[in-house]
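Hey team,

Filing this mostly as a record. A colleague (T.K.) asked me to run one chain through the structure pipeline before their review meeting, and I want the input and output archived in the tracker in case anyone asks later how it was produced. No errors, nothing strange. Just documentation.

Input sequence:
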Amino acid sequence: MVRHGQTYFNIYNKLQGWSNSPLTDKGIQNAVDTGNKLANIKFTAAYCSDTTRAMDTANMILAKNTVSDLDTPVVSKFFREEFYGYFEGTDMDQAWYLAGAPHGMPTFRSIVEQESIGKAKDLLKAADPFHDAEDNAEYWQRLDQGLALIKDNSEIHDGDNVLLVSHGNTLLSLVECFGNGQFDVTERPANGSITKLHFHDDQIEVTAFNVQ
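Output structure:
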């Protein structure tokens, strides 16, 4: 799994779930650098969310790959970032303050340290005046459909590699769920960073996180 390259909303510290902003020059370089790191990894399949920041990153990584027979990724809304509802485009620190401060947890870090990333989703939905933001159950119902796309792909066999380009909170959510507490999930992984998940039957294990 790769987090997409840096975007303008990343620079501006804005929540960017289903909303989208373009890759910066640095973000394009993130994708190129990661593509160079993965250039000799043979991928049987590739997936990404349907945001342009993820699609652009995935396409640039595949363009650098010298050993895979893949031109484009499978694009799916199931791999989108969490939907932040009313808080889309809001300053991240302000949004998490509004969600957590009434419960004595004024920052994203404090929510995760005292509760979980799943709880952060629930608190943000509760704070959303329209209640459009995804809560934890809604989020996983969608993401699980994306994971099923990979698991049910008959062209993927034991030992094969799959590329998935996704998002910061999605990576954190997967690592929290399948990382067995080995990794720090209080801060977002770097743009272009690599996280490795091992699929075995119905089990998923995170074996590396935020490799840069």
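Quick notes for T.K.: The chain has one domain: 2-81+135-211. The mean pLDDT is 97.
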